[in-house]
Specification:
It is a single chain. The protein is mostly helical. The chain has a three-stranded antiparallel sheet, with no helix packed on it. A two-stranded antiparallel sheet has the order 1-2. The chain is globular and about 50 Å long.
């Protein structure tokens, strides 16, 4: 039941652990539904570990959670991972289309964007509030001074960020989604955001020139509120698509009958 490889080391021919099937001479262990650990014969290269469906395994490769998306670990992304929109794929739904697929999120975020901003952050942190950092250290040159206050008060600080700095919270969620799911903005989404930035710059230039228009200010503010609602709706649609989390819409009719 033993054989010699690499200078006389005695190794067992095969060990079957968990639900995995026995491996063959190349260390291939298909496992049972990706669950078992299958150890096959070691070949001349010493590669004999096969986890799940991985063949010629040279190390541990457990199946990723959340339908292929790895849990968010915080900090800088790994080498080759997307950071702030560098992924090869676009969001599953565009900003405009997401409003129609997530009507409740869109309507709620027009008035109170903080609720969905907080909910999305918790989801991206795998509901582990202890991982929370102010804006996820996206603006660490400023937020690092708040680290001592955040520790032990993560839940309260998340509410403060979502309510008082909704725009920062939403864009932090966006960067986390892009990094975790390796996605990026579409050309249309980028154009919408850039156009609103130019509108804001134009308003500042007019204000410096002494021209202030209440109608212009209200129009730009409403456009920004609509954009944040679209962003929250897009984040909601992406999370549902990637993680399989379904958000139940409130039953308005039953409440009205009461």
């Amino acid at each position: 039941g033993q054989r010699r490889v690499h200078g006389g080391t005695l190794l067992p021919k095969e060990i079957n652990m968990g639900k995995g099937e026995k491996g063959d001479h190349n260390g291939n262990g298909p496992g049972n539904n990706g669950q078992g650990h299958a150890y096959g014969h070691q070949n001349g290269h010493g590669n004999g570990n096969a986890y799940g469906h991985q063949k010629h395994g040279a190390g541990d490769a457990p199946a990723a959670s959340y339908s292929g998306a790895a849990p968010y670990s915080g900090g800088a992304p790994a080498a080759g991972a997307a950071q702030y929109g560098g992924g090869p794929e676009e969001f599953h739904k565009g900003m405009i289309n997401a409003c129609f697929t997530q009507p409740f999120t869109c309507a709620l975020s027009c008035l109170f964007p903080c609720f969905k901003a907080r909910s999305h952050r918790l989801t991206m942190l795998d509901n582990d509030i202890t991982r929370y950092k102010c804006c996820n250290d996206r603006y660490s040159c400023i937020t690092k001074h708040c680290d001592s206050c955040v520790k032990g008060n993560e839940s309260c600080c998340l509410w403060l960020e979502a309510c008082c700095c909704s725009s920062f919270a939403i864009y932090t969620n966006r960067s986390m989604i892009e990094q975790r799911f390796n996605v990026r903005d579409s050309a249309c989404d980028s154009c919408i955001q850039i156009c609103l930035c130019f509108c804001q710059i134009f308003r500042c230039i007019l204000a410096c020139m002494g021209y202030r228009s209440q109608e212009l200010d209200m129009g730009i503010d409403c456009a920004y509120a609509a954009m944040y609602a679209c962003l929250n709706s897009q984040h909601e649609a992406e999370i549902e698509f990637r993680l399989g989390i379904k958000t139940a819409e409130p039953d308005y009719a039953s409440h009205m009958r009461r």
